[in-house]
Amino acid sequence: DADADDGANVVPFTRRYGDLGAAVYAALVDREARSATLAATGKDSGFGMVLDPYVNVMRVLRALEYTRAPDLRELTMYDLFGKIGVQVLKSPTVFGFYLPEHTPAGSLENAGLVAPQLEIATPPQLVGFLNGLHSLIDNGMTDCDSGFATNMGNGNCRNARQNADGFLAVIDANSTAALDADALIDRLALLLTGGRLATGATRDVLIAEHAAVLNATDGDRHAAVRHVAKLVVTTADFLATTRNAYTPDTRAPPQPVPSGGRPLKSLIVVFMAGGTDSYNMLVPHTCRAGSNLVSEYTAMRGVAALARSQLAVIDDLSDSQPCTRFGMHTSMPNLRQLYQDGDALWLANIGALVEPMNLTEYKDKLKQRPPSLFSHNVMTRSTVNVHAQRKSAAGILARIAKVLADQTPSYKVSMTSVSGVTRALTGAGREYDIISGSNVRTLKQSKLIDPIEALTAQHSDAPFSDTIAGEIVSSLYSSERLATLIGEAELDAGAFAGESRLGRQLETVAKMIKALSGEDAERALFYTSRGGFDTHNTIELEPIFGDIDMVGKLADELKAQGKWENTVIVGISEFGRTLKSNGQGTDHGWGGQAFIAGGSVNGGRVLGQYPKKLTDDGEVMLTKGRTIPTTPWEALWKGVAQWYGVPDEQLVDVLPNLNKFPKSMLFDKDTLFK
Questions:
Q1: Start-end of H helices in 51-199
Q2: What's the pLDDT score for residue 45?
Q3: I need a labelling partner for 242 at 20 to 30 A (CA). Which of 12, 44, 478, 518 fits?
Q4: CA distance 395 to 521
């Protein structure tokens, strides 16, 4: 508004758009700014937020007075997106770096709070963040020890501080080094945490570490300053804005689970993010008498239609589809070969449903629809939690893991995402590892791990602080363990990823499977993903479909390991795309095609029900050529869960909507597997 209203008086400003005086005034008189509860040193422990890592980097640079070295370049930081998950003008999608509704399972979710920034608080990015700040404090702005600067050239890291672009003046100042431990901690607490740095155990650890460095370095006070500063930037008081009060409860390190001696089975999700144009993955080719699907496909798709020359023909042995032969996109020869070998099958017109629904029931709203149809974020959630109507439901893989871990004897279960945070593995009281592509980042300064563990040893009554502290310490645990695990694994058939983004993830999965076999693991769940499927503006699908074809290379490696028979790969997307083109590409749809591959899969078939008519008057057709799914995700996951070891009586724990669907719509283990 042109005037700011504090509820009693109207204060006139310039009445011009962008009046900063009005904006500042409005912020100062906001109800939260005037809250007596919050003013009393923030007694509401649920108030506040976890800060964006880029914001935290800027806070360090400003608070500790980053100063450019004489005659050197202005501040330049390289690949912050790869290192910390955020970078100016580098948003990975139109939704930014994290979703506003994101909340991790646990105390935050239980309190009804959201923490968007925690979506990128993964072990690779948290470790990358800490490595960058620790390098900045020690070396100045360089790329040494995984610092934030652009490449300095070979050899310059031997004298990193001499070649740095700039330094943190407060850290290097003699006046800072002259402070005793208490005064130093007070100064850093004021500059970096607004005075929020917790007292008691936190201060005791920092004082002890300051003294230890002085003893180890013959009194090098500058080294002691740098050491304490590196620890302060790992505290929840720096990383979050909440009042951090510790509880008597201590954070226990993860305990190994004994193996029951059962053979390893691996379940791998390949998520095609963005909504894959799966009507160009599986195309009508030769259809039964009376069917016009081939011509209807060509007419409906328009410029998006594939020519016959772009199709690799496959026979459907199910005898249940309107076509006896389909065409797969020619950019997927390896997946086609798996199908031809009987190790892969397609599921037609599958998607998120709450209950069965036909066209009339959809139009008249007689059945419950999944929420926010055709939207990326909500449909992704519905696809990976397979409980569409429940926003907070645990992920499908997490629920499977919980059921198996609760068996007697318990299964030794490993859960890993090679593609960041995912709802598929979140919830149900289970934690999972996160690896960034083909690399496992570890803390460069491993000597800091023990004091960081001491700083995060106690739980906090503030959910934001407690959660980020837990993420820090668990990231250090998992990174060290995974680096050792994967570092010792060599592929039997050799590296296969090349330049493929998904290939690098699948290569890491192959190494994990080999390494876990030596650890007596019994079940391994993996989540991988490949973006780029939101093809509104292109019909050139070869690059993205070709990347999905890397599952065939993974199959070759697992065959060489002797693990293919005990592996299942599930290829899914949040929705299919419209059959009708928008002139340049295709838009968000609903039903689409998915695939399952594995050595035990009873393949060579198309299950579900491919639409019998691809025209506007088709019985499952909505506007723009969107199809209502005739097969729910529950159909796929029922048989997969049974194969994986979930008892029949607990299938409803894994698939809460299972009993809403008739058995004729579902596939059990005997249908999907040999």
A1: 53-63, 80-84, 107-110, 123-139, 169-172, 174-177, 181-193
A2: 66
A3: 478
A4: 21
| Alpha-carbon torsion (630, 654, 529, 554), positive or negative | negative
Tell me: the pLDDT tens digits for 377-432?
999 999 999 999 998 899 999 999 999 999 998 999 999 999 988 999 988 877 89
Give the pLDDT of residue 155: 57
pLDDT band at 39 (very low <50, low <70, confident <90, very high): very low
Q: Measured between alpha carbons, how far is 153 from 17 in angstroms, rounded to an integer?
A: 48
In the DSSP assignment, the letter for residue 163 is: G
DSSP state of 264: P
Q: Count of alpha carbons within 13 Å of 129, Cβ hemisphere only?
A: 30
**Smallest Cα–Cα separation from 188: which of 136, 225, 133, 221?**
225
- Rounded CA gap, 226 and 498, in Å? 41
3-state secondary structure of 556: helix
pLDDT of residue 108: 85
pLDDT of residue 11: 62
How far from 179 is each of 183, 188, 224, 226, 510, CA to CA, in Å? 6, 11, 11, 13, 52
Is residue 304 within 8 Å of residue 586, measured between CB atoms?
yes
Partners of residue 581 on adjacent β-strands? 586
The residue assigned the tokens 């693990």 is: 563
| Two structure tokens written together for 24 | 């500042």
d(CA 554, CA 614): 34
Say what percent of the chain tops pLDDT 70.
Answer: 96
Cβ-based neighbours of 671, under 8 Å, separated by 6 or more: 602, 607, 639
Check residue 314 and give its pLDDT.
97
> Average pLDDT of 197-210?
90
Of 605, 607, 611, 656, residue with least CA distance to 629? 611
The stretch 104-132 carries a mean pLDDT of: 88
**Got the DSSP string for 397-424?**
HHHHHHHHHTSSSPP-EEEEESBS--GG
Angle, helices 123-139 vs 221-232, to 10°: value is 160
Q: What is the DSSP string of 212-228?
A: HHHHHTTS-HHHHHHHH
DSSP code of residue 490? -
> Is 36's pLDDT higher than 80?
no
Q: Are 463 and 46 in contact (CB under 8 A)?
A: yes
Q: Which two tokens stand for residue 125?
A: 């990015």
Residue 235: which residues within 8 A CB-CB, separation 6 or more?
Answer: 193, 197, 198, 202, 244, 455, 469
Average pLDDT score over the chain: 91
CA 431, 436, 440, 441: dihedral to nearest 10 degrees?
Answer: -100
The DSSP result for 298-332, as a single string, is: HHHHGGGPPPGGGEEEEE--SS-SSEEEEEEETT-
